[in-house]
Write a structure and sequence with these properties.
Elements (H helix, E strand, L loop, with lengths): L2 H25 L4 E3 L3 H6 L6 E6 L8 H15 L3 E6 L3 H4 L14 H15 L8 E5 L1 H16 L4 H4 L3 H8 L6 H16 L4 E5 L3 H13 L6 E5 L25 H10 L2 H11 L4 H12 L4 H16 L2 H16 L8 E5 L5 E3 H7 L6 H9 L3 E3 L2 E2 L6 E3 L3 E6 L3 E7 L1
Parallel strand pairs: 2-3, 2-5, 3-4, 5-6, 7-13
Antiparallel strand pairs: 1-6, 8-11, 9-10, 9-12, 12-13
Helix pairs in contact: 6-9, 9-10, 11-14, 11-15, 12-14, 14-15, 16-17
């Protein structure tokens, strides 16, 4: 083998090593990458890939559930690819039907603009602002106009659209589907066309939309994008996806003490899910922590490591350490047991009064006893004394309740 051939072989092997490294990291935590082998083929093109995620500004704040896919965007950035943080200010006017059993109420233009501004600020807590393109899909979707929208709609069939699980379920149960909802996947697909996307990412509830994007790109004689979906992070209740509407979320702008305390409130089982989807630690490290717990290490001590890592990411290490010290002061020095019952209780109309909650949790025998204990100052919620008998807790929340000196329970309201 002559020197030139040997050098070319070395370069080829080096390139394959880089591709394998990228593929392993980008696949971590992914639910699906479609089609199979597609991402590796894209990486073998030897150029920067165009990667984007769309965020409809439906609420003023991002939460940890949003960061699962934003973390993946950062990985693409670190490997040198082009990343677009797309704000769906046009698609937000339609309302994404994903995961909905009723038509989503439309947002006003002012609501969308206000939410979009906060999204941009919060996303840069993870993304590199110098390597991120922030764009708005109203820029091309408004210009599309009615004639363009009709031509776009002609590229997809009603039958294919009604294959969507959300729509199929609503049809089966007699729930109405508004015509404008059928336009949402098409509008999102046109984003992929305009951005010349190589990779589009989203939660598992976005799979249909991402695949429509592939179809529409092909209809424009484009090489179709890779659809990469990530799992939907469960909220504090460990059941429903993290959502502000469910009240089970951790906002990335919450004070360090609140963020740390909420992370410590999750169940020991859910902790590993958060490690997998939110932690930047190598998978080998997480596996070692799991083995340590199996061997007898207190899960609480491992949860401290998770809470410190996440709180540091959105604040700083000093505030994270202070939050831990305050947590220990409030809970451990208050003689809170290391292990306590985890209880799930069903709510009515999305909330439950404190008296009924304490009774159903088995911390008191009756509502009247609960009232007496509150009046005596013997009831605490997350270490803080409860003063109001009329307090109502919201569905999707998880808190530690204490009655007297020895009765404790971690209660999730479903």
């Amino acid at each position: 083998m002559n020197a030139k051939v040997l050098q070319a072989f070395k370069i080829l092997m080096m390139d394959m090593t880089i591709i394998k490294e990228q593929l392993a990291e980008l696949s971590r935590g992914a639910d699906e990458i479609l089609p199979d082998g597609g991402l590796e083929d894209k990486l073998k093109l030897g150029r920067k890939l165009n990667v984007y995620v769309g965020f409809d500004p439906t609420a003023p704040d991002l939460h940890l559930g949003h960061t699962v896919v934003i973390n993946k965007m950062r990985q693409f950035q670190d490997f040198g690819h082009n990343v677009v943080f797309l704000i769906g200010d046009f698609t937000g006017l339609i309302g994404d039907p994903s995961g909905r059993n009723v038509t989503r109420p439309p947002l006003t233009r002012d609501e969308i603009d206000a939410n979009a501004n906060t999204y941009k600020e919060q996303a840069f807590k993870i993304l590199d602002p110098d390597k991120t393109v922030v764009d708005f899909n109203s820029r091309w979707l408004m210009e599309l106009g009615s004639p363009g929208l009709i031509k776009l709609a002609a590229r997809y069939t009603v039958a294919r659209m009604l294959e969507r699980d959300d729509f199929a379920k609503r049809l089966a149960t007699g729930q109405p589907i508004a015509i404008h909802e059928l336009l949402y996947p098409l509008a999102q697909a046109y984003d992929a066309v305009t951005l010349k996307a190589d990779v589009q990412m989203g939660g598992t509830d976005q799979k249909f939309n991402l695949l429509v994007g592939r179809h529409i790109q092909q209809s424009f004689d484009m090489e179709p994008q890779i659809a990469l979906t990530v799992p939907l992070l469960e909220g504090l209740d460990g059941e429903q996806k993290m959502s502000k509407s469910y009240g089970n979320y951790i906002g990335i702008t919450e004070p360090a003490n609140e963020m740390f305390g909420k992370l410590m409130s999750i169940s020991d089982e859910l902790m590993w899910r958060y490690f997998e989807l939110l932690s930047f630690r190598p998978l080998e490290d997480i596996a070692s922590l799991q083995q340590e717990v199996v061997d007898g290490k207190n899960p609480r001590d491992v949860k401290y490591e998770l809470a410190i890592e996440i709180t540091t990411r959105f604040h700083n290490q000093s505030l994270a350490k202070l939050a831990k010290e305050e947590f220990i002061s409030r809970f451990q020095q208050g003689a809170m047991p290391e292990h306590m019952r985890d209880i799930s209780i069903s709510s009515k109309n999305g909330e439950l009064g404190i008296l009924n909650l304490l009774k159903e949790a088995g911390l008191v025998t009756s509502n009247s006893e609960a009232a007496r204990m509150i009046e005596a100052g013997a009831v605490k919620l997350d270490g803080e004394r409860v003063l109001e008998r009329g307090l109502h807790l919201k569905k999707g929340t998880t808190h530690v309740y204490q009655v007297g000196k020895r009765k404790f329970a971690r209660v999730t309201l479903k």
